[in-house]
Amino acid sequence: MQAQVLWRRLDTQGHDACRLSRDGDDWVLEGAAVAAEKHALVSVSYRVVCGDDWVTKSATVTGWSNEHNISLEIVRDSDGVWHCNGIEAPLLGECTDIDLGFTPATNTCAVRRLQIDVGQRRKATAAWLDDADWQLKPLQQYYLRKAEFSYEYGSPAHGFTAQLTLDENGLVTEYPGVWTAESLDEL
Prior knowledge:
The chain has one helix spanning 107-114, and strands at residues 2-9, 14-23, 26-37, 40-50, 56-65, 68-76, 82-84, 87-88, 97-100, 121-130, 135-147, 150-155, 160-166, 172-175, 179-181. β7 and β8 form a beta hairpin. The chain contains one helix and 15 strands. Strands 8-7-6-5-4-3-2-1-15-14-13-12-11-10-9 form a 15-stranded mixed β-sheet, with helices on one face. The longest helix is centred in the middle third of the chain and has 8 residues, at 107-114. By secondary structure, it is mostly beta strands.
C-alpha cells in the first residue's frame, strides 16, 4: 500500500509532498515541506514511523529555518519513554502520537490510531514539535469524527479547532485556512 499527496499552504507560500507507505509491519510517513513563515524561509524533510497499531515509534526531522539548522532524532521506546537526540524527554511521558507542527501528515497517525466511530470524540496527547522554536512539547488534542471522512480537530490549550477532511487513506485533503491537497491527476 502506498499513497501520495501534495499539499499547498493557504496561509502563506509553501508546499509539502508526502508519501504514506508500509515497511514490513510499520507505517511510514515521509516528506518534505517548504514555506515562507514569519520572515523566515523553512525547508525540512521528515520521516515518521508508526507500528501496525499507529503508535509512534520514531520521527526524524532535518533541514533549516533561516540560519537555524534542524536535526532531530525523536524516538518513543517500547516502554513509552520519549527521547530527542538521545536525551530523555520526561515531559512527553503520556504522549502516544507525534505532531509535527509544520505538516498535516501527522494527523494521519492519530486518526488511524484512534479508530473513531462517527459521532465519537477521543482525546489524545501528542509530542508536538512547535515550529516556532523547534522544541518538543506535550499537546492535549481531540478528534471528533463528524462523518466518514470529516473530523473536528481541537487543541484546547490554544483555543484552536479545525474541520479536517481526509481521504480513504487517512491523509488530510482539506485543513481550512492552512492546507489543501493539490490534484495529482495531471502527473
